[in-house]
Specification:
The complex is a heterodimer.
Chain A: E1 2-7, E2 9-11, E3 22-23, E4 28-29, E5 36-38, H1 40-55, E6 60-66, H2 72-81, E7 85-89, H3 99-113, E8 118-122, H4 133-141, E9 145-155, E10 158-165, E11 168-175, E12 178-182, H5 195-203, E13 208-209, E14 224-230, E15 239-240, H6 246-259
Parallel strand pairs in A: 1-6, 1-8, 6-7, 7-13, 8-12, 9-12
Antiparallel strand pairs in A: 2-5, 3-4, 9-10, 10-11
Chain B: E1 4-7, E2 10-11, E3 14-15, H1 17-33, E4 37-43, H2 50-55, E5 60-65, H3 74-88, E6 92-96, H4 99-112, E7 115-120, E8 122-125, E9 130-136, E10 141-147, E11 152-156, E12 173-176, E13 189-195, E14 208-212, H5 219-231, E15 235-238, H6 240-244, E16 265-269, H7 275-278, E17 286-291, E18 304-307, H8 314-325
Classes of the chains: A alpha/beta, B alpha/beta.
């Protein structure tokens, strides 16, 4: 059985708002502020795949990414965590695609690579926060799509997928091939790579595919265009509550809130 | 004339508030462009709701009322929605940013080869296009986006748009949708459903929210937050980190990928202030932050702050407030 996990490298999502820098001309974040990292939800997706592999050694997990030179890092990390193979989609024309373009290219690559029984995508990437590629990919490949999934078990030929719902969760049974969009859960926290994993990952051959390798010769149309990026402003001015120690600060805070008549 | 198609989301046998909000948005666009607004209404036993959609701003409603639609399955609903889109031929399709609608939007976008902007919080009607604004980079920036495909799709964040009316004098057309559902089967089977118990009130309805984050060491600490929330007739929330650590259920998560709340008072306890969390609560009227780190980003968006370990503050705070309020 073959699982493909789609991954993306993004600007560190933990950069605080006050320090975040935008390149207004290029209409995207300044790329070299802090680290470029593996999208957190994609880490959860890799973990879900590896948990399936933990229970069945015959399962092969491939991490796929589309990106420029720096994206090799996320594939090495995926391999170090325990993925068996990696695929790198790399071409200048892939650098500024929208969600539809991204999904179309990945679909082509997956079809060309052969079969995928399960495809996992992080629910959204922490840069554009669009959350569409997974669903678009499932439609392109004409396979079922399960959103907000966080755990998958395989029993025979069927998959049992746990997903979040408005006020709880549901377990869905689905036949393969299928795609699931993965969200964070206490049950899918990404494992740390072992030292051995890191060493093996460093030696792994990673095949790359250009537009030509995927038989893409026409310009990929953009359906969504960014006109402008702006930074929001915050106008609160914080008042710090004083006190000798915690309990005294608490007394003063309570008094302040009562005085402001905010609590009923 | 091309128009706007709005997907109607139903909850508890009524049109949802986010649906009324996007109908308001559609009417606001239509007032400038003169184009018709159509609502798509799918479900089992939903026909009586069509008139309410007209009163909330739709000029016509395409209804598919069928027992097979009692349980939501995206692939089944999609078939009908694609048929409605083929009949109405809208230039803009608007989804409320909730539940089933969120599943349908990108899949319909693929079928119609239309660009989709998700989590839209604002829009501007221009001569050449409607420009949609959405938060990006974990809500650290705002992007104004233009959709260049002939059909544009957008899903809209709840509580950002004004509902219209309702105007009980509005009249409109109700069209029955005849899509054959005989040969289509759900692509998944629901094996089990677990609904969580809702304490006091939901997070979105609460006037006071008490939230905990990375700084909280154990589930007992969340018990204290729950105690404070109950005392103030509020609800308890948490950040993604707390959910990941298994300290609270996912339904407590407040943030960009959790619930978005705007209560009268928001207590942020042991929360550093990652932008993705702030995205879920920056609309709160009054923000109180308790954190031992004086440089925590949460303080830059708070009204009042206490730089202190929450364990040294919470018990006394609860006692003092209990004395003052009871």
């Amino acid at each position: 059985m073959h699982i493909v996990v789609c991954t993306k490298q993004i600007v560190d999502p933990e950069i605080p708002s006050g320090e975040f820098k935008v390149d207004f001309k290029a209409k995207r974040a300044v790329q070299d502020q802090g680290e470029l990292v593996l999208n957190p939800y994609d880490e959860n997706a890799i973990e879900v795949a590896l948990q399936l592999k933990d229970r069945d050694k015959d399962i092969k997990v491939t991490a796929l990414t589309m990106g420029g030179e720096s994206s090799q890092k996320v594939l090495r990390r995926a391999l170090a965590m325990g993925c068996d193979e990696a695929i790198w989609l790399k071409d200048p024309s892939f650098e500024t695609l929208d969600s539809a373009g991204t999904a179309a290219i990945i679909a082509k690559a997956i079809r060309q690579a052969g079969s995928a029984d399960i495809i996992l995508c992080g629910r959204q990437a922490g840069d554009w926060d669009m959350g569409q590629v997974g669903a678009l990919l499932a439609e392109d490949l004409q396979i079922p799509c399960i959103p907000l999934a966080y755990n998958i078990e395989k029993k025979g030929d069927a998959l049992f997928v746990k997903r979040e719902t408005e006020n709880g969760m549901a377990v869905l049974e689905v036949a393969m091939p299928a795609l699931a969009n993965i969200t964070n859960s206490s049950t899918n926290q990404p494992r740390y790579p072992s030292v051995k994993g890191v060493l093996m990952a460093g030696r792994k051959q990673i095949p790359t595919f250009s537009a030509g390798d995927l038989s893409i010769d026409a310009e990929i149309q953009k359906r969504v265009v960014v006109e402008e990026l702006t930074l929001p402003s915050y106008d609160r001015q914080v008042l710090f509550i004083d006190g000798e120690d915690g309990p005294e600060k608490a007394v003063n805070l309570a008094a302040h809130l009562i005085k402001m008549n905010l609590l009923k | 004339m091309p128009g706007i198609l709005v997907y109607a989301s139903i909850g508890c046998n009524a049109v949802s508030m986010p649906t009324r909000e996007i109908l308001g948005m559609a009417r606001a666009i239509a007032v400038k462009t003169g184009e018709p607004v159509t609502a798509a209404l799918l479900g089992a036993g939903v026909s009586p709701l069509a008139q309410g959609l007209i009163e909330a701003g739709a000029d016509s409603v395409h209804v598919c009322d069928n027992d097979k639609l009692g349980e939501f399955h995206a692939n089944v609903y999609l078939k009908i929605l694609a048929d409605i889109a083929a009949t109405v031929k809208p230039r803009i399709i608007i989804f409320p940013g909730e539940a089933a609608a969120l599943e349908l939007a990108p899949r319909l976008a693929h079928r119609l080869k239309g660009g989709l902007v998700t989590d839209c919080i604002g829009f501007e009607v221009r001569e050449d296009a409607v420009i949609f604004t959405k938060p990006v980079y974990g809500s650290k920036a705002l992007a104004r986006m233009r959709i260049t495909s002939p059909t544009a799709l957008v899903s809209v964040r709840p509580r950002t748009q004004e509902p219209f009316g309702p105007d009980q004098n509005r009249k409109g057309e109700v069209v029955a949708v005849e899509t054959a559902l005989g040969d289509i089967e759900p692509e998944t089977r629901i094996v089990e459903r677990v609904e969580e118990e809702v304490f006091e009130c939901t997070l979105e309805e609460a006037n006071v929210v008490v939230s905990g984050g990375r700084g909280l060491k154990d589930t007992e600490s969340f018990g204290q937050l729950r105690e404070l929330a109950a005392l103030l007739n509020g609800a308890m929330g948490a950040t993604r980190v707390a959910v990941d650590q298994g300290m609270v259920p996912p339904s407590c998560q407040i943030g960009l990928t959790g619930k978005i709340v705007a209560p009268e008072v928001y207590f942020a306890v042991g929360i550093s202030g990652a932008s993705q969390h702030i995205a879920g609560m920056s609309g709160s009227k009054y923000i109180v932050a308790i954190n031992s780190d004086p440089d925590a980003p949460i303080f830059s968006i708070s009204n009042v702050g206490v730089v202190e370990d929450y364990r040294n503050v919470m018990p006394t705070l609860i006692d003092e407030l209990r004395k003052a309020l009871v």
